[in-house]
Amino acid sequence: MTTIRPLPAYLVQRYQGWKATTYADNQAWFRRLANEGQRPRAMVIACCDSRVHVTSIFGAEQGEFFIHRNIANLVPPYAPDGDYHGTSAAVEYAVTALKVAHLVVVGHSQCGGVQGCLDMCQGRAPELEKKTSFVGRWMDILRPAIDKIADLPAERQAAALEREAVLISIENLMTFPFIRDAVDRHELTLHGLWMDIGEGELEAWDPDHGRFAAI
Amino acid sequence: MTTIRPLPAYLVQRYQGWKATTYADNQAWFRRLANEGQRPRAMVIACCDSRVHVTSIFGAEQGEFFIHRNIANLVPPYAPDGDYHGTSAAVEYAVTALKVAHLVVVGHSQCGGVQGCLDMCQGRAPELEKKTSFVGRWMDILRPAIDKIADLPAERQAAALEREAVLISIENLMTFPFIRDAVDRHELTLHGLWMDIGEGELEAWDPDHGRFAAI
Amino acid sequence: MTTIRPLPAYLVQRYQGWKATTYADNQAWFRRLANEGQRPRAMVIACCDSRVHVTSIFGAEQGEFFIHRNIANLVPPYAPDGDYHGTSAAVEYAVTALKVAHLVVVGHSQCGGVQGCLDMCQGRAPELEKKTSFVGRWMDILRPAIDKIADLPAERQAAALEREAVLISIENLMTFPFIRDAVDRHELTLHGLWMDIGEGELEAWDPDHGRFAAI
Amino acid sequence: MTTIRPLPAYLVQRYQGWKATTYADNQAWFRRLANEGQRPRAMVIACCDSRVHVTSIFGAEQGEFFIHRNIANLVPPYAPDGDYHGTSAAVEYAVTALKVAHLVVVGHSQCGGVQGCLDMCQGRAPELEKKTSFVGRWMDILRPAIDKIADLPAERQAAALEREAVLISIENLMTFPFIRDAVDRHELTLHGLWMDIGEGELEAWDPDHGRFAAI
Known about the structure:
Four copies of one chain form a homotetramer.
Chain A: H1 9-25, H2 27-36, E1 42-47, H3 54-57, E2 65-70, H4 86-97, E3 102-108, H5 112-121, H6 126-129, H7 134-139, H8 146-149, H9 154-173, H10 177-184, E4 189-196, E5 201-206, E6 211-214
């Protein structure tokens, strides 16, 4: 693997700072986590976006959150066809092996993936329609929701579709038998959030009123 | 979506603490990131494991790292077949749209996914062989590496396979045309790491000596 | 310009080492920074002193900090009189053009400029009182603070005046209309620090208690 | 000073990493530097730009370089008029008090200050002509050099003017009596550099051939 390069010095330095502080201060806990295994209370499904780190927003300590991050925080429908399904594997492991108590889907404002989906569905991004576009095909998961935001003014569609991405992911989660079972047995609760990056506002889906509302 | 429940109070409280401190102290920066978009320097592919948060290890600030997390930090081979490929979509977006300068794959000790792969390949986990096992099928990505660790003493096989998971992911990354092109044009460098959770040691693949070595 | 001499070999060697390592490892990022421009999150105003490199203390990577360094980290009051004002120009560029989110003034122990000011104000450095002394005239910025430390024991006066240099600079910063506006609009926050060189201790001004306190 | 805010957490974290590593590893040297004072070998005059840290390029260790950074690495002519002259004070302190052996002026590509000067002189930036523009008045230092680049193709003018900024600063340095004396006594040498950010190339003024040439 001569392709691999040494780690850039700034990442070495960051790591060394972490080792000498966070690790040194919590060595006993890290060793217990290593020896006894993880026991996270919640799984979070969030976007890869560099501006939304749920580890920061929820003050994630070691061992607390099992975190899957993908483009636009999407979950595809249940499809046990033998292919690679990274998101489904993460969900399966969290619910059936780790038995997390909460599963939280976190969307966010200014999501590049959602904007790409909107552009694609409205004919402005033909390159995303190609079979070879991994982003385009991945965003197909969100395509069924496009009709729900079609009547909104153009400037509000992206933010609305970002929230639909959270809802459709939770709908898809409920197509997984092991999720539905865990929810029915009250062993798992599902939660939907949307974060406004610029304002720092977190909205949660309010099932009583059927809308997202600021926390 | 009556399935969705309100956010547990402990997460509300964590968020409110973040809003009153991290957000309040950095409001101007968050607004700029929202208005001007992200420009992360690196993409990190790491495991969902709750004990290994690269955001902590590398002191990730808002806007710095585009992070994909899946089971066992795996990247499947290039396969533009029109299906959902979350990992491939994340990599495509990071390299072609965001033009990250570094792509870092981070493996770790005590990886449940890798242990499952080992158990499966050695006949101890028949349930993972089923077509309906998302974890089993996802870990098939690592299966080609199983021969490389077969001759090691049993107690060293898991840690060796964890490192192979990093290497096979980077090999698979190089099967993506846009990755190979970016590497060839010196616009992207690839890096492979492995973290020992209990000891806090970070190893990097050393291309000169062909092995992982402590930083 | 026959006055100019070739670069000393030790600096050539240092540069060549940097080129072969830091630059080589981060070429893609340097090119992006060159093509797309800088977007620093913070401006730092620090002393020229060779013992206090904020680039080291804050692990400054390329693109992160806009740094002005002058004698005793001083900012003069707002005075748009058409003369050369290097510090005011740096602050104006950082706040109005680059729109930094934070402006941090960093003082330090054993500051030669502050000691000179103390000596001058207490009659021990008549050469600094001369109109032709650039250092003396520059340190006049700090002169209004001398009364605040006059009652302290002699051996504590210099360290106290170093901290006053930070405070008076921030007071002066607030006389610039564009700074006051940015602070009022929550687009900019001001911060005051003092570093003990020998002990490596960093103190920050605590607005709640009205004093510098160790971080 | 209720205007001052606590230091953002990410800077606290960066500092703590430095304290636990760089400081801890070099405590004895920091204490000697604190007790015995600095003895830098060279003064560097560089730009505030966040992409050009001479501390990185020259691997600046504690105590080695006395560093002044301002917009466009400019030095105004000698003018002992009793006003605040931050750059002149820094130069005076370095040469007469610290007796540095080398004085290095470092310019760079994509310099926002130089571009502003070019725009101003060519009528494209009337706001910089105002008496109240600190950046405009500061860039007046470079105005005498504008004729030297006027005949070049437009796309080459900025880079040429960046190099002229280095030369005019060194010319101005030679108008300071204490500099000329130190140079004449062979106690000080002057050096002019220009860094290409994207390519990592460092050019030095070659007095034999009267041009900048790659090192």
